[in-house]
Amino acid sequence: MLRLLAILHTASTCLAGNLRPNIVGGSLVTTVPHSHPHLVSIRKYGYHTCGGSIVNKRIVLTAAHCFISDDTTGLYIVAGIANLTEKGQAIRIAKVRRHPKYKEFLHFDVAIATLQRPLEFNERVQAIAISEEEVGGGVECITAGWGYTKANGSVSEVLKELRVKTLTKEQCQSKQPYRNNFINDGHICTLVKVGHGVCQGDSGGSLLGNGQLIGITSWVWPCARGRPDVFTRITKCIDWIKKEISQED
After folding, report:
1. Could you give the CA distance from residue 238 to residue 103 in angstroms, rounded to a whole number?
2. 53 is catalytic
3. Which of 53, 95, 137, 203 has its CA 20 to 30 A from that of 112?
4. 184-196: per-residue pLDDT in tens?
């Protein structure tokens, strides 16, 4: 299966094949259209590829597998939108740094994108606080994105959100009978029910607990089929994140 993961990753121009996570069965964010002002759409040559979270005016936190290299050609973010057709603030990505211990989806699937110029904060564009507290099982959270609304579908133009609940590592492993060795302490797993979950296009997006960033959307296999959604656990890479951000200040 590790071989399969590697093949899927190299076969994609920006994301990792069918393991790319979108919100399936979520709710349209229409009553409060800009209720996730920290979320950005990461694009390559105009196409939405991943989500990301604003942590300050120049830094976006996302998944490492959203980038096949550190080459930023054609990469930019759009902030302050609820619909992919909105204009928002479009800013080129000047630099990408993936975690030095990143290994496919299994370890440290986190990256920092530095923007060419600062964002202008307003009611639609805001930074999200990063949590440094460990999260166990049974915690209610929210994830959101513009990913596929069904497997092998297409991205959702309108931002969708999904309320989820975390699993313990043991619960997550038990629900991944053929991939339980993929789950480690660097992951947070969530599960709702069949027909609900993240899918392609949601990668790099946020998992929020108590209004703070606790996870980064990493992978699921397959989408919304009763398998856990897997997020990179922020606390396991917080030291690296802080160090990299401080170097930009």
Report:
1. 17
2. no
3. 137
4. 999 999 998 888 8
